[in-house]
UniProtKB/TrEMBL annotation:
Keywords: Endosome, Lysosome, Membrane, Transmembrane, Transmembrane helix, Transport. It is found in: Cytoplasmic vesicle, Phagosome membrane; Endosome membrane; Lysosome membrane. Its main location: membrane. GO terms for molecular function: heme binding; heme transmembrane transporter activity. This is Heme transporter HRG1. Belongs to the HRG family. It catalyses: heme b(in) = heme b(out). Pfam families: HRG. The chain crosses the membrane at residues 12-33, 39-59, 71-97.
Length: 125
């Protein structure tokens, strides 16, 4: 069953917001924190969200009927990046656990690491 126009509009709005968030993450981690790896992942998330936005807009305009092979390609790339993101999450989780990089047991003394002491920032949460 096809989604309604309202559902498509909400999905397009969400992907547009996600695209803006991904690009802002890219800018913040590039300019403020100077960590290109994290910035690259934020930029990639923004690009993929923009890809989803374009896909929804093209679906709303009924452009896909003339280009179904392209839709299949979009689908497979989406599945590929989903699998890569799950594998990456699991890898970083295993690395954090095996290297004992959790903040548990420090009594809220702040977060060290490459960004310095952020204890004042994290005390708000």
């Amino acid at each position: 069953m096809a989604p309604s126009r309202l559902q498509l509009g909400l999905r397009a709005a969400y992907s547009g917001l996600s695209s803006a968030a991904g690009f802002s993450i890219f800018l913040v981690w590039t300019v403020l924190y100077r960590q290109p790896g994290t910035a690259a992942m934020g930029g990639l998330a923004g690009v993929l969200a923009l890809w989803v936005l374009v896909t929804h807009v093209m679906y709303m305009q009924d452009y896909w009927r003339t280009w179904l092979k392209g839709l299949r390609g979009f689908f497979f790339v989406g599945v590929l990046f989903s699998a890569v993101s799950v594998a990456t999450f699991c890898t970083f989780l295993v690395l954090a656990v095996t290297r004992h990089q959790s903040e548990g047991g420090q009594g809220g003394k702040g977060v060290g690491g490459p960004m310095g002491d952020l204890g004042g920032f994290w005390s708000w949460f």
